[in-house]
């Protein structure tokens, strides 16, 4: 074959190539020419195959599969032409609309991202079948595993089958009421730190505004609340003082809050990531991806240090969650690291978001806020009083009916988990419908908590008094799904309720909260939070509120 190798002008060859003989060069030239030719010839063919594969898959999932579905008889809303909604995952608000408008018998069928079929649990009876009766026939689907596992690691929430049952058993004693009860002094101390942090922020604002009147800018309370939840889980579960509230620049707290907080822009990125799939999205050279990866690696290293420290002093009778779990001998070192990362995630943002929603709602209902403040001040010592913060006991909260009613109502009205997912892994039955393996099932603590069929005509109104009546607030216990139900029910529920008591009591006892722009906001809070289907991060980082100190406590 004639040599067609031409040394490119101005091209400096690396030294090892500069030694290459002409023959070598010719061969290399011929070979590279051949492969270039092959690639050039092959590229259109490969592209054609890829295009055909994508179109065939789209055709199958969008047109053939829905027509062949065994679940076609389940009522389905009109979602419009599939091509226009291919990249859209319906939000909890859309599901709520279907729940109201579509006649159904407890199940609704709809299409999500990439036109995939979903079965929506539209009644408390159906929720009972999914989460209790048939619980072990459903698992968490891959998309949710990847999204949650990326930040929260494959801990208890994402384990399945026998592995889950054994792990849950090992964790159970640490979440016993007695152990939670002991956390009250720590939680109250953290509430004190939180009140101080917000006071400082508000003073700094007044100073900046140059007056004693409240600043029109408001204060950002979400980060200090998140920091408080990090400090509490650190102290209660791991005997670790992250000091995140007192020192907002402390590395762990700052980084952790950065991973979990989001902006509207961040939410849009998350939605796009869900479209292309988190596996691919997490490989993209994006700043958000780098921030998450850096943050997660810090969390994993910290978790590793925490576990190592516990392993070194196993003899000392530490009573934190990790020590109790280690004593069961169930987990290896690496399992414990994973679970530590997991509990840091599970036990922080959920509570911070719920407290933030409660404050948002109370800020919009001053009469409820005043009633709550009166109860708090009558019943509890100020966390700022000399011994007030360390002497608190669970029994001090015993008569605080209105505080508990406000917490239940905030959890009902704004369940932090808007949508949760399952995939059928062995033939199951929900109500009178056979569910085939592979079916994606969605339940929504948010819509279920606001369904007038279960909660009465004022279901979409924030009304803590509904919990104080003689009769039950709803017609079916499974209509309150904020903590899930059955064997996968939230293991941290009692800890979360205790923490919400302390943080809310500290905040509302001390401050009067009011919205920055009442006329532009609503109880639903779409302006400050998101209805995103696929994420937990429901309140935007930049949300601000007026916080005025109320003297006398
Ligand atoms: C207001 C706060 C909280 C809310 C609303 C909440 C909500 C939930 C829900 C709905 C589930 C069930 C998920 C599903 O079935 O797919 C769950 C599970 C779980 N939660 Fe929570 N949670 C909160 C606080 C906590 C805390 C404080 C912890 C731990 C310290 C925690 C740890 C877990 C774990 C480990 C699971 C998995 C349980 C299992 O699968 O066995 N959560 N949570």
TrEMBL record:
Signal sequence region: none
Regions crossing the membrane: 42-60
InterPro entries in the cross-refs: Cyt_P450, Cyt_P450_CS, Cyt_P450_E_grp-I, Cyt_P450_sf, Cytochrome_P450_monoxygenase
Cofactor(s) required, per the database record: heme
Domain of life: Eukaryota
Alphabetic keyword roster: Heme, Iron, Membrane, Metal-binding, Monooxygenase, Oxidoreductase, Transmembrane, Transmembrane helix
The family this protein is said to belong to: Belongs to the cytochrome P450 family.
Protein name, as recorded: Cytochrome P450
